């Protein structure tokens, strides 16, 4: 009997491995999205570069574009770009960008996004704001019907205003949680807001921006993506807003 059980366990393990090999891992999808995004990015120009593990795959491919320079959305991204010999320029010395490329924590059919999982939301929003095109690269786990349903909404806050902002957010129906031990590149803190029912992303983005002490919130609706390059089990899909 023991032998029979062992043999069936082995069979089950083999079957599971076969099924798993049919699907790309999340990292393989992130890499595929990064590769597919290259054709949407300018050759030889100045590119705005986001932050996160998906963008890290893209950065490795950027030498192909022979960029003149890049504007980085975080210190971490700047370090990676410099390591590859790509010049990183101060945004104050740039009039505009042909494109900005970044990942997202969530993205919906309007190409509104939730960002800030990596705490770089403020600089990401600033760099994206001067780009003519926002290319979002994601694996399909990031595609959602409703924003902030699963993932909390990050809000960057001036440290002294943390409790005051948290109380305001509670009055808006959210449950803010202080992201312990995280200080942004701008010296601020992050509140992750759970249980928000985002019916109008544009309106909520503005409402949150108006709370004194809020530096930036992770809703990217005013400056949404122009194209989403989504890696799925069936390959790459390029999606525009509906
Ligand atoms: C960082 C971000 C990232 O774009 C977002 O967290 C997605 O990251 P990843 O590509 O690692 O999943 O907004 O602030």
Q: Which percent range fits the helix content?
A: 25-40%
Report the end-to-end length measured between terminal Cα atoms. 58 Å
Proportion of beta-strand residues: 15-25%
Radius of gyration: 20 Å
Q: What structural category do the secondary elements indicate?
A: alpha/beta
Please give the order of strands in the largest beta sheet.
2-1-3-6-12-13
Unreliable spans are none
**What is the global morphology?**
globular
Number of strands: 13
Count of alpha/pi helices: 7
Q: Give the overall average pLDDT.
A: 95
Q: Could you tell me which ligands this complex binds, including any ions or cofactors?
A: ribulose-5-phosphate
Largest sheet: 6 strands, mixed
Order of helices and strands: HHEHEHEEEHEEHEEHEEEE
SSE topology sketch:
Layout: H1 2-22, H2 26-37, E1 46-49, H3 53-61, E2 69-72, H4 75-83, E3 99-102, E4 106-107, E5 113-114, H5 121-129, E6 134-139, E7 153-157, H6 162-171, E8 175-178, E9 189-194, H7 201-209, E10 214-217, E11 219-220, E12 227-232, E13 235-239
Parallel strand pairs: 1-2, 1-3, 3-6, 6-12
Antiparallel strand pairs: 4-5, 5-11, 7-9, 7-10, 8-9, 12-13
Helix pairs in contact: 2-3
The protein binds ribulose-5-phosphate (5RP).
Ribulose-5-phosphate binds next to helix 3 and helix 5.
Note the main attributes of this structure.
single chain; 242 residues; alpha/beta; 33% helix; binds ribulose-5-phosphate
Brief digest:
This protein has 242 residues and is α/β, with parallel strands linked by helices. It has helices spanning 2-22, 26-37, 53-61, 75-83, 121-129, 162-171, 201-209; strands at 46-49, 69-72, 99-102, 106-107, 113-114, 134-139, 153-157, 175-178, 189-194, 214-217, 219-220, 227-232, 235-239. Strands 2-1-3-6-12-13 form a six-stranded mixed β-sheet, with helices on both faces.
């Amino acid at each position: 009997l023991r032998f029979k059980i062992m043999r069936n366990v082995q069979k089950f393990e083999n079957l599971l491995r076969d099924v798993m090999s049919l699907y790309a891992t999340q990292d393989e999808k992130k890499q595929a999205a990064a590769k597919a995004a290259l054709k949407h990015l300018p050759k030889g120009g100045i590119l705005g570069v986001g932050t996160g593990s998906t963008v890290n795959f893209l950065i490795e491919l950027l030498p192909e574009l022979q960029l003149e320079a890049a504007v980085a959305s975080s210190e971490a991204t700047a370090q990676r770009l410099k390591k590859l010999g790509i010049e990183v320029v101060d945004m104050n010395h740039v009039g505009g960008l042909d494109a900005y490329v970044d990942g997202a924590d969530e993205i919906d059919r309007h190409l509104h996004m939730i960002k800030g999982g990596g705490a770089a939301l403020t600089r990401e929003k600033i760099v994206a704001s001067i780009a003519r095109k926002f290319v979002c690269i994601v694996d399909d786990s990031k595609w959602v019907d409703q924003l902030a349903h699963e993932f909390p909404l990050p809000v960057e806050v001036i440290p002294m205003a943390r409790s005051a902002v948290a109380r305001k957010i509670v009055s808006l129906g959210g449950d803010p949680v202080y992201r312990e031990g995280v200080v942004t590149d701008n010296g601020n803190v992050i509140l992750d807001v759970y249980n928000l029912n985002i019916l109008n992303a544009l309106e909520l983005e503005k409402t949150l921006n108006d709370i004194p002490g809020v530096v930036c919130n992770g809703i990217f609706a005013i400056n949404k993506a122009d194209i989403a390059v989504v890696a799925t089990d069936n390959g790459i899909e390029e999606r525009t807003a509906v």
